[in-house]
Design goal:
By secondary structure, the chain is mostly helical. The protein has a domain of 71 residues. It has seven helices and two strands, in the order ββααααααα. Helix 4 packs parallel to helix 6. It is elongated, with a radius of gyration of 24 Å.
Length: 124
């Protein structure tokens, strides 16, 4: 820990956290504040520096995959509702648990299926 006027930063932080002004600060508030600071830091950092960070690149890829999975799940749900009407709860559960590739397979099965059982017989 680096020194600051003979004290460590940790010692300064401890004093701040124990002050009466911080009594109402909740863990949720600290988490939200951290997210806001992170977003400000990202906005202030040049893109070429951000994309050169391996963790940042992996995070972007994961967010892209998550978004793609959510979109596929939404479309499949709407198609199933259109074809079969109101869906039973187990269908929503299976879709929520399915990986992207499984959702893609389910959407292809929908084309030939006569029932929900035909679609979900061997997945997830």
């Amino acid at each position: 820990m680096e020194k600051k006027d003979g004290k460590t930063y940790w010692h300064c932080l401890e004093g701040t956290l124990n002050s009466p002004e911080t009594e109402g600060i909740t863990p949720e508030y600290v988490i939200q504040l951290g997210k806001e600071w992170f977003e400000l830091m990202v906005d202030a950092t040049p893109e070429e520096e951000l994309f050169s960070l391996p963790k940042f690149e992996r995070r972007l890829e994961q967010e892209h995959q998550d978004g793609e999975r959510e979109g596929e799940a939404k479309i499949l749900t709407r198609q199933l509702q259109r074809r079969f009407g109101e869906l039973p709860p187990w269908v929503y559960e299976r879709i929520a648990k399915a990986e992207l590739s499984a959702l893609e397979d389910l959407s292809l099965k929908l084309l030939d299926a006569k029932s929900l059982g035909d679609i979900f017989s061997d997945t997830v």
